[in-house]
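Now for a specimen:

…
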Amino acid sequence: MAEETQHPDLTDEEKKLFEKYMPEDLQEIIASGMQRRHFLKLVTLSGGSLLVFQLLGRHPVFANAPGTSNAIKAASIENGVKVTFKVNGARKMIELDSRMTLLDALREQLELTGSKKGCDHGQCGACTVLVDGRRVLSCLTLAATCEGKSVTTIEGLANGDKLHPMQAAFVKHDGFQCGYCTPGQICSAVALMKEAENGEASYVTTDVRSKTQAIQLSDEEIRERMSGNICRCGAYPNIVAAIKEVHTGKGVAQTWQFTG
């Protein structure tokens, strides 16, 4: 395969760099552009100089060089598909492997690392996000199936510096300890509010036939509806209190008030 060649103009800084380390190649680079072999040779001769790596984000040939953190070249993606969808209100178009999960696409392609990879088998709930307002396990959801949809992650719940009411309640009630499961817990709790508002029954709902309006969530209902989100630290009473406060709109006593 022919070596990929780019023809951007060299900056003064780049010229000085090549004059210092590769004077014999400078005229060729100026005439025909930088190639990957030039990059590899420069890294070797400079001993990985910081100045070299500062150029990575500015130059097209460096941006796709081996070992950089930029997006994978489309040519190297197997079973590549283009997916266009909204993420936290912003339209995104990414090219990815058709087998890539939504979780991996969010974390690796869009650098939204709030959603956590826990079990990667749909059993812990740490990866929960909202797709068109409904909670899904992003580790079991193919990114390609989100074409044209709206995805909301933990990063998209707050309004600028103002926390979402559920986020504020989790902070108030200390609904987290290590915090690893918290993004999934909060996203799940936000969706739970909408489900109850729509009158959607759960396993413990008393009479599923008569529920045609909003359901008033008891502690038992909250625990059942949140049972897919595992907290290994055991902050469950605090999580229930946080959700109950947001659901009722009334203050719930913090559990620390009952200790001692």
Notes: The chain has a mean pLDDT of 83. The chain is about 35% helix and 10% strand. The first strand starts at residue 80 and ends at 87. Strands lie at 80-87, 90-97, 128-131, 134-137, 150-152.
